[in-house]
Write a structure and sequence with these properties.
Elements (H helix, E strand, L loop, with lengths): L1 E4 L4 H16 L8 H12 L11 H17 L4 H11 L1 H8 L1 H11 L6 E9 L2 E11 H5 L1 H66 L5 H36 L27 H8 L1 H22 L6 E10 L5 E8 L8 H66 L5 H37 L21
Antiparallel strand pairs: 1-5, 2-3, 3-4, 4-5
Helix pairs in contact: 2-8, 3-4, 4-8, 6-8, 8-9, 8-11, 8-13, 10-12, 11-12, 12-13
Length: about 475
Amino acid sequence: MNAASPTPAPRAVCAAVLALALGGCASFSQDGGVDAVSAMTAERTGQDVRLPAASRAEQAETAVQAELARLLKEPLGADQAVRVALLNNRSLRASLAGLGVAEADLVQAGRLANPGFSFSRLSGGAETEIERSVMFDLVGLLTMPIRRDIEARRFEGAKLVAATAAVQLAADTRKAYFEAVAARQSASYAQQVHEAAQASGELARRMAQVGHLSALDQAREQAFSLEAAAGLARARHQALAARERLARLLGVWGEAADFTLPERLPELPAAPREAGNIESLAMQQRLDLRLAQLETASTARALGLSKATGFVNVLEAGYANTSKSGAPRENGYEIELALPLFDWGGARVARAEAIYMQAVHRTAGIAVDARSQVREAYSAYRTGYDIAKQHRDQLVPLRKKISEEVLLRYNGMLVSVFELLADARAQIAGVNAAIGAQRDFWIAETELQAAISGAGGVPLTLGSAVPAPAAPQH
């Protein structure tokens, strides 16, 4: 529809000015969302995260490398290993850099599409007609606050996803750390067993030479020595594999990969943690639940936008003028509106409603699963503590006492060498079981913390909500 008037339409001019003002308000933040991610990570792990800005990346990287060198110089504790991973893991840095994509979408949603300019020139005979027009996207202007709200929620969701990646990395690093220390401790014990078996085998060979040991007994001693050697080789490989898994999470290589681990696992705490209100705590701190709630709210907001633009999906207005040869210039305005003859927007609204109900049920399901996961994790934690404590306080001392008694009887020629060997094998299995129980407790403690504060050990991805309508392109 075209209309002519002596002067440009005031409303079109006002709309253009308002669009330029709103477009100028959209800008990027100073931290790119990393500060919020760092705060959520620190609340759950006690460690912050960093992503140096591109403008000062070199200076920040130098500071990070200095801190890494200091941490890797001493034997690593569990907290120090987590710190190294949060500073140096490249996958985490990639997740943090992804915040820039979500923020760019937010900034873009606050900017109106560029105006369209059209120019036409028609000539015939002695007459020439020139037409010029500038078009602005009015629907994009009117729905800009809603679109910015939707993208702001998505930006918040991206922060939650990045924080979940950081918390999950911290949990994975702690578990890998305890596995690596336990594997090293088992390898050290396997070395002691191997040395004792070699000494026993040499003694059996000498006793057989002087006729004090039968060929059968000597073969059994040799078999025990060979089994100990195989067990040592297996334990060394497991220690190397566990160390390399930890190194990958730490993001270290070269000289930095020569970090030192302690010889033994940490001691058990004096008392286990009480269950208390862990379910309600999980409802407050679970990042996957917060993300699901955010997506549900964002979907509801997008549903309102779908209803608002269901009938009017293209509405543009602008200034136009026409000039003809030998005639005064004609000024006016032009409005372009897509008529809802074939598509009344009902399908888009129904789709938005269905997606909203999906989000509602998904959020409720995540809450139910979270409560179950935290109860299961606490059961594993408490069981692991009880078993590890039993090994430490009862089984290992009892095995030691049994071995001392068997050795006394062997020296007094009251038991045979076979009973001595059987007791040695039982003691080896008992010590390895004690190391495994202590390792399992610390891993269960990490899993419990992840079930309360993180995502239950499951990495999160930003779900697909109802997309905000893009401004029409000219």
